[in-house]
Model the fold of this input.
Amino acid sequence: MSLKNNIKKPDFLFVSSTDTIKVFNNKLLEKITTTDHRLPFVIFTPIILYFLYESILFVMDGSISQPYWIILLFLCAVLIWTMVEYICHRYIFHYNAKTKVVKKLLYIIHWAHHDYPNDAKRVVLLPIISIPGATLFYLLAYLILGRFYAAPFTFSLFSCYLLYDWFHYASHHLNIDNDYYNLIKKYHLHHHYKNPNKGFGFITTLWDHIMRTNF
Done:
């Protein structure tokens, strides 16, 4: 039975024979709880380019006195993003909710994507989540690293996020002749069609191996 009619714990393995689902009859609610897969790029590409510009500017004017730190910040951003990606997917999106309100919220955010994996409007992260989340991460980076070093870190972190969104959409809707892409695609589709309680990582399977949730 579809979660559309009977919200339940995320131990499901239901896949609809149809491509889309309409959760709300209210047009406004339906609109803000779905999104075009290109929208994150429209929103975040200018922001990423701005932080790239700031990073270059801060290196050139000496505000970033040790440019090699940018490499370390990039590696930290990749590591942090993949960890956030894993934690959010496993412990938030697949949380065993007890109340109807939380179940409904999680269904909108993620479970509907499991029921209807081919629904292109339910693949990428909703802007009502990604924008506040991005703001929070930047403020934390600003407080911890300061304005100058927060720029290259934020550039790297947001780039990882866009890469994640694109890979997620592509894994459900595109065929690409690339070994690494096909490995990620196969791994993610196992999460959908074999066992939704494994394979929470996406850009990398590192955290799945560490946490023993790999296939």
Summary: The chain has seven helices and no strands. Residues 84 and 189 are 20 Å apart (CA to CA).
